Amino acid sequence: MKKKDKNIASKPMFDRELDEIFYKMDRRYVRGSSILYIVSIVFMFFGVMGLIWMIPFPRFEFLVSLKMDTFLNWGSFYIAVIVYLYLRMAPTLSYAMLFTIGIMSFFIVQLEYLERAGGPAVWFISLVVAVIGLIGLFINSRKELPKVSWKELWQLITIGPIWYWSKVFKKFNIKY
């Protein structure tokens, strides 16, 4: 009778689909620089959010009469959708992303003030930042073997922010 080999790793069981996604991403992105991945994802997210923020929004008179017209733009809807989707995946991580988005929103508003004072256009800065982030992701993902597909790169762009927040939460033993 043969003994069972205890060194054979079995596939772990996951309570949520998101945990399985994080597990796969942890094993997929190992060769590239994790710092470059983080910076690139942040740049990409900030750039896209800034571009969406700067799309002209219709002027509604009832919002003007309530002096609420400056608080609503396409970025508001983008933020709501992103936070909702992350909330469905992992509530605690969505709060961390909401905090991150709040900081990014502050910087976008600062860029708007800079533009009003004669500085460069916010859409241009956002575009440059998004392209830098995309190039960084693309270059860093080329180090992975086998090469990262466009679908995997898209998953990294969309799930990557909460994936990195999950690593921070794990480091501090915070349940998500």
Number of domains: 1
Shape: globular
Largest sheet: none
Oligomer: single chain
- In terms of DSSP E residues, the strand content is under 5%
Structural class estimated from helices and strands: mainly alpha
Rg for CA atoms: 20 Å
- H/E element string? HHHHHHH
Write down the overall mean pLDDT. 90
Counted beta strands? 0
Question: Approximately how much helix is present in the residues?
Answer: 55-70%
Protein architecture, described:
With 176 residues, the chain is mostly helical. The protein has helices spanning 17-28, 34-53, 61-65, 74-89, 91-116, 122-141, 150-171. The chain has one domain. Helix 2 packs across helix 4 and helix 5 (91-116) packs across helix 7 (150-171). The chain is globular, with a radius of gyration of 20 Å.
